[in-house]
């Protein structure tokens, strides 16, 4: 596989090393701080702990009510990713294949224009409306994520669907497939590179988002993981050792998702890059 | 007709089942919602457990919301204000109280055990006779010192401004860092400013300013001068030091003095349990100094709560002498109750002003919300431009008041 005469450039190696360092160093701080006593954190942020304080993790679990919040976060994220992939691709398909009709063209620009509206502007009306409709709970949250994702997802799906030849669908039509079957059996599988992109972005967004759950969720029992992290921040100070232990536990599922889905994600992306 | 994809059907089925599950959690017990910032949580829990034992028909749900003020605002929008809110007697409280969401306790017997000075503070924050919250704990601002370092320098805790400056000079001459200042956090300038202003600016300043009869330019010039002189003795790079960093540095013996409120003490002791600390009234003038003590926590209740009788029962329980003492001991805060002085040995020098009544609320609490005075002082201690500070405050005050009228 080695290409003759091509050696790795020193400059690029140094840059890659620095890039890796900029990720590894904060990660080192997070892991080290999570295993220290408050006194050790105050004495030196960078030093290694004298003994490993695993109690930080159990204490963080107790304080945040970790497993309850984890269940809510997992429920919201999984539902949002599934519903987003299934519904947003459908909407995009309808729009992409009907762009010769004014209504669908208008709808396309209508959805895209939502990209330009900052969330804080619509925040209070959304809070009031969700509360009035009894949607200030995880189910309401899921609904909002699926709808808010529409603008960006339609943008990427429509662009991609346009590149899929119509002839494939025509062939399916001749074989007697309905529009519904054409979509699920032919188009949806072809969308996998886009599904990967949308799935990953949606997953990270729904898992990490703070503001929307903060204003929507009324019942503390339904708090998501980002919300419960606040417990370590007092009025003026933060319990860094417990906070970092908790942050590590919160980010772990996303790392695991990535490790498990890595092969699929990369193959999905490369599949999209090679036309054939 | 083709059927929906099985995955979709399963997802919707799951969602509807969850909805059904969430809807079926009603019970006969009255539930009260109690909102509190992140302080003394375990003590609240213990107090509520005792209350629920006495009143089996009432359940108190303790809620510690992330971003307290933002969440409270959304609850007002939703028209679902918590039954009881425990918050500071600060500008945020001013906003909520003026919005008319809290019950007026002016005629309530629960206020009888509270020192009048704290009741007046709550009244003057809103500017009327109404008392929209029951003061529960107070805070106190002073000059914190490292007792060992002071002893090494052969000094006693300063009582006057002249003694304070002399002590700072002596510490510097001895090669010590005289003072820790944490200007990366703008709010830190407020206790600093309050401690001086309460002694040198008339208490009527805010009212006169609103009437157009006073200016920062005239009243706060001396405060600005003193702040700048004292700040000259701070460690290197105060603008790059946050409260958390500065507190840890002071705890490690980084400096002799630290200008903060009692709320910094638990953090200092957490970082270094062995440090010997003391606190004295802030030596702002060469006479007897008044100590800033504001309502740190007050209990306000929603005006239109659905359970007024239960709320009263809980407030009565919480404000009983025994329970107040339990809470104060846990959070190490001064009491607002009549006839009490700070009991923490670190605060022993603060007893005298409390028993003689030389305490007053923070001048800042009477500033209009939205003035953001802290950012002006933060900038001032870096660019040292007094004219910019005072003119800026005068102008912004007028703008903010005009905007809110």
UniProtKB/TrEMBL annotation, chain A:
Protein name: ABC transporter permease
Residues covered by the ABC transmembrane type-1 domain: 70-261
Transmembrane region(s): 12-31, 74-95, 107-127, 139-161, 182-207, 242-261
Subcellular location, principal: membrane
Family: Belongs to the binding-protein-dependent transport system permease family.
Cellular component terms (Gene Ontology): plasma membrane
Subcellular location: Cell membrane
Keywords: Cell membrane, Membrane, Transmembrane, Transmembrane helix, Transport
CDD domains linked: TM_PBP2
Superkingdom of this protein's organism: Bacteria
PANTHER family on file: ABC TRANSPORTER PERMEASE PROTEIN MG189-RELATED (PTHR43744:SF12), ABC TRANSPORTER PERMEASE PROTEIN MG189-RELATED-RELATED (PTHR43744)
Biological processes annotated in GO: transmembrane transport
PROSITE patterns listed in its UniProt record: ABC_TM1 (PS50928)
Membrane topology listed for this record: Multi-pass membrane protein
From TrEMBL, chain B:
Domain of life: Bacteria
Signal peptide: 1-28
Keywords: Cell membrane, Lipoprotein, Membrane, Palmitate, Signal
Name of the protein this chain belongs to: ABC transporter substrate-binding protein
Organism taxonomic ancestry: Bacteria, Thermotogati, Deinococcota, Deinococci, Deinococcales
């Amino acid at each position: 596989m080695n290409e003759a005469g091509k050696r790795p450039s020193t400059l690029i190696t140094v840059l890659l090393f620095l890039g890796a360092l900029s990720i590894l160093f904060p990660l080192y701080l997070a892991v080290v701080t999570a295993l220290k006593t408050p006194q050790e954190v105050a004495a030196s942020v960078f030093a290694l702990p004298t003994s490993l304080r695993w109690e930080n993790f159990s204490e963080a679990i107790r304080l945040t009510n970790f497993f309850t919040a984890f269940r809510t976060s997992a429920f919201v994220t999984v539902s949002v990713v599934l519903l987003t992939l299934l519904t947003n691709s459908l909407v995009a398909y309808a729009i992409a294949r009907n762009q010769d009709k004014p209504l669908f063209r208008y709808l396309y620009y209508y959805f895209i224009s939502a990209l330009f509206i900052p969330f804080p502007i619509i925040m209070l009306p959304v809070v009031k409306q969700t509360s009035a409709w009894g949607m200030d709970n995880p189910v309401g949250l899921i609904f909002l994520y699926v709808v808010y994702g529409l603008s960006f997802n339609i943008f990427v799906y429509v662009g991609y669907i346009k590149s899929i030849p119509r002839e494939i669908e025509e062939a399916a039509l001749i074989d007697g497939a309905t529009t519904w079957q054409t979509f699920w059996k032919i188009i949806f599988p072809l969308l996998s590179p886009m599904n990967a992109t949308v799935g990953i972005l949606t997953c990270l967004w729904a898992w990490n988002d703070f503001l929307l759950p903060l204003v929507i969720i009324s019942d503390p029992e339904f708090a998501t993981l980002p919300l419960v992290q606040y417990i370590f921040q007092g009025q003026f100070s933060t319990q860094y050792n417990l906070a970092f232990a908790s942050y590590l536990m919160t980010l772990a599922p996303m790392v695991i998702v990535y490790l498990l889905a890595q092969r699929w994600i990369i193959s999905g992306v490369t599949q999209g890059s090679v036309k054939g | 007709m083709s059927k929906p994809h099985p995955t979709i059907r399963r997802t919707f089925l799951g969602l509807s089942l969850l909805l059904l599950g969430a809807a079926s959690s009603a019970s006969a017990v009255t539930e009260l919602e109690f909102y509190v910032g992140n302080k003394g949580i375990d003590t609240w829990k213990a107090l509520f457990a005792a209350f629920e034992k006495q009143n089996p028909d009432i359940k108190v749900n303790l809620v510690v919301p992330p971003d307290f003020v933002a969440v409270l605002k959304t609850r007002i929008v939703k028209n679902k204000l918590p039954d009881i809110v425990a918050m500071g007697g600060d500008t945020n409280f001013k906003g909520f109280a003026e919005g008319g969401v809290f019950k007026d306790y002016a005629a309530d017997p629960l206020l009888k055990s509270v020192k009048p000075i704290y009741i007046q503070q709550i009244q003057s924050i809103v500017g009327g006779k109404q008392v929209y919250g029951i003061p529960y704990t107070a805070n106190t601002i002073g000059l914190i010192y490292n007792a060992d370092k002071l002893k090494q320098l052969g000094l006693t805790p300063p009582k006057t401004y002249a003694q304070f400056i002399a002590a700072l000079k002596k510490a510097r001459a001895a090669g010590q860092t005289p003072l820790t200042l944490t200007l990366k956090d703008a709010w830190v300038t407020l206790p600093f400013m309050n401690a001086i202003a309460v002694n040198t600016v008339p208490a009527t300043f805010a009212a006169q300013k609103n009437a157009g009869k006073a200016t920062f330019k005239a009243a706060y010039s001396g405060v600005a001068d003193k702040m700048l002189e004292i700040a000259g003795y701070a460690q290197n790079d105060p603008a790059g030091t946050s409260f958390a960093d500065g507190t840890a540095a002071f705890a490690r013996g980084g400096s002799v003095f630290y200008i903060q409120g009692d709320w910094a003490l638990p953090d200092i002791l957490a970082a270094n349990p062995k440090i010997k600390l003391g606190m004295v009234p802030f030596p702002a003038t060469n006479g007897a100094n008044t100590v800033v003590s504001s309502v740190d926590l007050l209990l306000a209740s929603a005006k239109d709560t659905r359970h007024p009788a239960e709320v009263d029962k809980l407030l009565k329980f919480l404000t009983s002498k025994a329970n107040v003492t339990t809470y104060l001991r846990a959070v190490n805060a001064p009491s607002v109750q009549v006839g009490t002085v700070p009991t923490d040995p670190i605060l022993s020098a603060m007893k005298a002003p409390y028993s003689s009544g030389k305490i007053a609320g923070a001048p800042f609490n009477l500033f209009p919300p939205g003035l953001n005075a802290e950012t002006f002082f933060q900038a001032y201690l870096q660019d040292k431009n007094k004219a910019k500070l005072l003119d800026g405050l005068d102008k912004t005050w007028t703008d903010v008041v005009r905007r809110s009228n």
